[in-house]
Amino acid sequence: MKLSFKIYFVVGILFMASVVAILYFYPKPIVHNESFEQDFGGWIEAADVPLDPNNPGHYVAWNVSRVTSLVHSGQYSVELYVDGRQDDGTVWIEKKISVKDNSQIQVEISFEFYSEQESFNVIASVCAYAGISNPEVEADFTLLGQANEVAGWKHYTHETTLQTGSSEEVWAAVGITVRWETEMTYNIDDVKVTIS
Questions:
Q1: What percent of the chain has pLDDT over 70?
Q2: pLDDT the model gives residue 26
Q3: In a domain, 19, yes or no
Q4: Looking at the domain assignment, is residue 5 inside a domain?
Q5: For residues 92 and 109, is the Cβ–Cβ distance under 8 A?
Q6: Does residue 191 contact residue 114 with C-beta atoms inside 8 Å?
Q7: Half-sphere exposure (CA, 13 Å, Cβ side) for 96?
Q8: Which domain holds residue 73?
Q9: How many structural domains does the chain have?
Q10: What whole-number distance in Å separates Cα of residue 20 and Cα of residue 22?
Q11: d(C-alpha 149, C-alpha 104), whole Å
Q12: Domain harbouring 160, CATH code
């Protein structure tokens, strides 16, 4: 009995040591949470918009700003505005995040999105991006759904698998893309990027 007890004891100790080693050395997810309370938290504004035929030589108006007038949590959210009267344009916020090169990673971007009204017309689409290069044009983005699906806040998630290659960074972005000829304003809050 004493010998079998010792064997079980040693096996148990080895098992526990293996579990602890796996938990310690297994890569922990990289998580970036941003509710825009202090500033933009490293997120920067960007757009791909057309030239304005009513103002030759200039692009249509667009803007990204922190506001206190409408929030999901805390005291600030990000407001996205674009003059969509040319039936074109994409406005977003983006962030560069350091990662390990030559790795396969999972990227999940989740965020809260606000529309003032529900509409059966597709006025704009909610869009997101995750990749190893900086998004530059509307075609870089994945459409997540109609921006006016509900009046109020709605949760969106975008997931993708990436091979980093020699790159040591990934880009995450969320925004809107025009689908109807009108000016539009939407809000984004509580953005979370998880990389594992």
A1: 86
A2: 53
A3: no
A4: no
A5: no
A6: no
A7: 8
A8: 29-195
A9: 1
A10: 6
A11: 34
A12: 2.60.120.200
- The pLDDT > 90 percentage for the chain reads 84
Given the DSSP bridges, would you call strands 183-195 and 77-83 parallel, antiparallel or unpaired?
Answer: antiparallel
Q: In this model, does residue 18 exceed pLDDT 80?
A: no
With respect to residue 20, please indicate whether it lies within any of the assigned structural domains: no
- Between the alpha carbon of residue 3 and those of residues 10, 11, 14, 91, the distances in Å are 11, 12, 17, 70
The mean of the pLDDT values for the chain is 91
In this structure, what token pair is assigned to residue 116?
């003032």
β-partners of residue 95 are: 172
Q: Let me know: does 106 contact 54? Beta carbons within 8 Å.
A: no
Residue 149 lies in a domain: yes
Sequence-distant (≥ 6) Cβ neighbours of residue 44 within 8 angstroms: 93, 94, 95
Q: How many CB atoms lie within 10 A of CB 85?
A: 19
Q: What does the alpha-carbon distance between residue 101 and residue 85 come to, in Å, rounded to a whole number?
A: 42
Would you list the DSSP string of 130-170?
A: EESS---SGGGSEEEEETTSSSEEEEEEEEEEEE-TT--EE
Amino acid, res. 76: Y
